[in-house]
Design goal:
about 130 residues; 6 strands; six-stranded antiparallel beta sheet
Length: about 130
């Protein structure tokens, strides 16, 4: 494994990410080149129209990005990110799967695919991490 010696160590570290934790987001899996985070959807994630707030989807993707990038090199911060929202959520859980695209000397590029538990593609996030 990377900078974290176990999944439990990484989970304890990212519990300190208060916004994600208070929103119910958790780190489920972590490997050398991937991370999986999820959140059960509740009323607190809804926008004024009853859909899921884009910021909730972004936060879940950002948590998966942070887990993977900091497992590669700690500390790493986001230098630039983008997200494309693809579909509305139909399920009752969101899953973010981060995968390493490039691990450079000072930066890393990570893709995060966000789906709901019906398998529907919800968003696609690309993050460039800067290794401090």
């Amino acid at each position: 494994m990377g900078t974290f010696s176990s999944l439990e160590e990484a989970q304890a570290h990212f519990k300190k990410d208060k916004f994600a934790s208070f929103s119910g987001m958790v780190l489920d899996e972590l490997g050398d080149d991937f991370a999986v985070c999820s959140v059960p959807i509740s009323e607190v994630h809804q926008n004024a129209y009853g859909g899921i707030m884009g910021g909730a989807i972004f936060t879940l993707a950002d948590l998966a990005f942070a887990a993977l990038s900091n497992n590669i090199h700690q500390p790493t911060v986001a230098q630039q990110v983008s997200i494309n929202y693809l579909s509305s959520v139909k399920g009752d859980k969101l899953i973010a799967r981060a995968s390493m695209k490039k691990d450079g000397k000072r930066t890393c590029t990570i893709n995060v695919d966000i789906t709901d538990n019906t398998g529907r593609d919800i968003a696609q996030f690309v993050g460039l991490g800067f290794k401090l």
